[in-house]
Write a structure and sequence with these properties.
Layout: H1 2-14, E1 19-20, E2 34-38, E3 45-51, E4 57-64, H2 68-81, E5 90-101, E6 104-112, E7 122-123, H3 125-132
Antiparallel strand pairs: 1-2, 2-3, 3-4, 4-5, 5-6, 6-7
């Protein structure tokens, strides 16, 4: 899927220290709708990209955890336990949007801490990442 690949690459390009978390091979035949990214080692934030599955609608969240040690334990458990490992994370920033094409996203809803002023109905992938960046 072009949209999903584009968004995953945008996350990795903007948060250049990020790592996409991988599930164990036990999940190999399951359709994936949720993708998690450790933003940077030693930080207590995690990015969560959710695909609605039927169309080009997505949600990107920055989850905050109490400390790095707690998040590290959850990351280590993720390959075997799946997304339920991160249920204790608190949403810091949430943006829902439609993918219109490469570098064209239509913002639908913003909640939490949003960086900058995004007053256009159409934003770029870089603007999306900057708006949820917990280090800004």
């Amino acid at each position: 899927m072009d949209a999903l690949n584009y968004l995953r690459e945008e996350i990795k390009a903007y948060f250049f220290e990020s790592t996409e978390l991988q599930l164990s091979s036990a999940y190999a035949n399951h359709r994936r709708f949720n993708f998690y990214f450790e933003i940077a080692s030693g930080q207590h934030y995690l990015l969560y990209l959710s695909w609605e599955g039927d169309d080009e609608r997505f949600t990107l969240k920055c989850l905050e955890f109490t400390d790095w040690e707690t998040l590290k334990k959850l990351i280590d458990a993720y390959p075997e336990t799946g997304s339920k490992a991160f249920n204790i994370g608190k949403p810091r920033s949430t943006i829902s949007f439609f993918y219109l094409g490469k570098d064209r996203l239509s913002a639908l809803d913003y909640r939490g801490v949003i960086n900058g002023h995004i007053d256009s109905s159409e934003i770029s992938g870089r603007q999306l990442m900057g708006s949820i960046n917990p280090f800004s």
